[in-house]
Amino acid sequence: QVQLVESGPGLVKPSQTLSLTCTVSGAPILAGNSYWAWIRHPPGADMEWMGVIDPSGVTYYSPPLKSRTSISRDAFKNQFTLQLESVTPEDTAVYYCARTSVGRSWTLPDEYEDWGQGTQVTVSS
């Protein structure tokens, strides 16, 4: 069974860079059948897909966030990370890492099969 655990700071100041790590167990992140994504849930809003890294290491990002977002992976640690630059209070949300299978619509949060528990991130001075 695949397990994902998010870690990172709960509070970030405006204009700083948010960095989160997802530690995966039960499946190698280099597995050819999985996409690994970051998804967030702002208060009072819908789930928002942020970006994904595919089995080849190619990344795809939500257009509104593309200029500020970076996803990378560390196969030795079986982790993947999110960096979000120049955060504002509008980036306050619960951040999730998630996995879906190749062949599913990886831009849609409902298509993800395995999820971390989520981590609250607040952007405030």
What does this structure look like?
The chain has no helices and eleven strands. It is an all-beta fold. Strands 2, 4, 5, 6, 9, 10 and 11 form a seven-stranded mixed β-sheet that branches. It has a four-stranded antiparallel β-sheet with strand order 1-3-8-7, with no helix packed on it.
% residues in beta strands: over 45%
Determine the mean pLDDT.
Answer: 96
Portion of residues in helices?
A: under 10%
Q: Helix/strand/pairing class, anyone?
A: mainly beta
Largest sheet: 7 strands, mixed
Point out poorly predicted stretches: none
The Rg value, from CA coordinates, equals: 13 Å
DSSP summary, beta strand count: 11
Shape label: globular
Short descriptors:
seven-stranded mixed beta sheet, globular, 125 residues, mainly beta, four-stranded antiparallel beta sheet, single chain
